[in-house]
Amino acid sequence: MPRRARMYIPGYAYHIVQRGNNRQACFFEVENYRVFLKYMTEVLPRYGNSLHAYCLMTNHVHLLITPECVDSISNLMKVVCSRYAQYINKKYTRTGSLWEGRHKASVIDSESYLLKCYRYIELNPVTADMVKRPEGYAWSSNHCNAWGGQNRLISGHESYLALGQNQAQRCSNYRKLFNEALSTGDYQAIGKALHFSMPLGSEEFMEKIEKRTGRKIGYAHRGRPYAKLVKNKSLRPLKCLRPLK
User: Fold this and answer.
1) 95-120 tens-digit pLDDT
2) Residue 2 placed within a domain
3) What is the pTM assigned to this prediction?
4) What is the pLDDT of residues 211-220, one digit of tens each?
5) Which domain, by its residues, includes 117?
6) In whole angstroms, what separates CA 101 from the centre of its chain?
7) Of 9, 141, 182, 229, which one has the greatest count of Cβ atoms within 10 A?
8) Average pLDDT rounded to a whole number, residues 121-140
9) Is residue 104 part of a domain?
10) What CATH number does residue 183 fall under?
11) Cα–Cα distance, 52 to 15 (Å, whole number)
């Protein structure tokens, strides 16, 4: 059965993750990170994308993006990942796939989860025990969002811009968000939505996404539909809804 086409809604923020093949490394030295960011800088405006946050980990990439067109994100990821894979294969005289299939994509409810998703992304190196504080990691957007560092890749989302009347206020208030750790529930919700390429937000937000895409939202089980044995010992099929992809 062919895979369902991606459906990106212009103007909505998406949490994107692209992993290395078999969870193996896709960055091997400092130059690699710089090359990937160079490609992102060149391709982002070409297809109409606004990047709000990012983190390049050793074996995967996190991005928080708002597309202008339905195919903005797909075109961006296709071109950047392809160019980068070609660069890696040539540089290290290797063959085969660098990336693990298609990227994951979760549309984010800006009212309830957008700034939490910012933090989730920029806290990745801290969660992985690579650094003590997010600003200690060189390959993320934290230097820009939290400290006002210059970064041509980054465009502030409305939720971020609302943190203050000027950049100094926004950075200060943004840093304060990191004084409190993300709850276990938030971490699990963001991770689960990303794993299944599901929307993340309130029930009202979910209903809005269903109407915009014409697709029912739910977590699908792989394989054939199955049945559940209930107390009266009769078999009743469970309704299985496919995730938004």
Assistant:
1) 889 999 889 999 999 988 999 999 99
2) no
3) 0.86
4) 888 877 765 4
5) 14-218
6) 15
7) 141
8) 96
9) yes
10) 3.30.70.1290
11) 10
CA-to-CA distance for 21 and 97, rounded, in angstroms? 7
Question: How many whole angstroms separate alpha carbon 112 and alpha carbon 160?
Answer: 13
Own/partner contacts of 35-44, CB < 8 Å, gap of 24 or more, are 35/84, 35/87, 36/61, 36/80, 36/84, 37/139, 37/153, 39/79, 39/80, 39/83, 39/84, 40/80, 40/153, 41/152, 41/153, 43/76, 43/79, 43/80, 43/83, 44/76, 44/153
Strand order in the sheet with 60-67: 49-56, 60-67, 14-19, 104-107
CA proximity to 55, closest of 112, 23, 10, 16: 16
Q: Which of 48-62, 185-199, 211-225 has the lowest mean pLDDT?
A: 211-225
Number of domains composing the chain: 1
Reported in sequence order, the residue ranges of 144-225 that DSSP labels E, i.e. its strands, are none
Report the C-alpha gap between 125 and 57 in whole angstroms.
Answer: 7
With a CB cutoff of 8 Å and minimum separation 6, the contacts of 3 are 102, 245
